[in-house]
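Suppose a colleague, Dr. K., hands you the sequence of a protein chain of 209 amino acids and asks what its three-dimensional shape might be. Before reaching for any lab equipment, you can write down a predicted structure in token form. Begin with the sequence itself:
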Amino acid sequence: MILTIEDIRKYLTYRLPGEDAHIPMSPMGRGRSSEALSRSINHRESAVALIIYEYQNELKCILTERSPYRGMHSGEICFPGGKMEESDEDLKQTAMRESVEEIGLKYEGFELLGKLTPVFIPVSNFSIQPFVFYYTQAPVFVPNIREVAEIFTFPIQQLFEKDIIKKTRIKLSGNRVLDDTPYFDINNKVVWGATALILHEFKRIFSNG
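The predicted structure, expressed as tokens, is then:
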């Protein structure tokens, strides 16, 4: 399937696959976000930006690798994003602001295409609202090294390759281990967890795989 920005904009107006599309990429034992969220207390709102841009007639998506820190998400692959601040008008503003701060994009380059189904992360008590943006300029990346170790991109078409989804053993803090965890193998990096759930719903919009 060869996607265009017009295709993505159109499909995002349809009914989303929702949490059914999260389940195939969920770590073992993890339930639906809505069920976990209903049991949470004082969860925090956050947003991420799935940013698409065009380069040499090919649509690409942006991911980052977190800088190492003493926390449960150190070094993980993720979308630009973070928690909502009091100064943010809404979660869309949160996603854009974090993208500007983390990877150096410009506010005027963002065009909202739509949003995806929220994902709740019990271990950090964050509800994540994913937004899909088209970045209308040629991106010039300026990483915030305190938060971002690496910025990398990949062709959207790669999501539809047969062997992009694999399973592996994930080592967590506190000597915890998640066996047979599904992930996207993107640029030889393990993209799992919330980022994988979001990518899988995005993929499912256009296919059944």
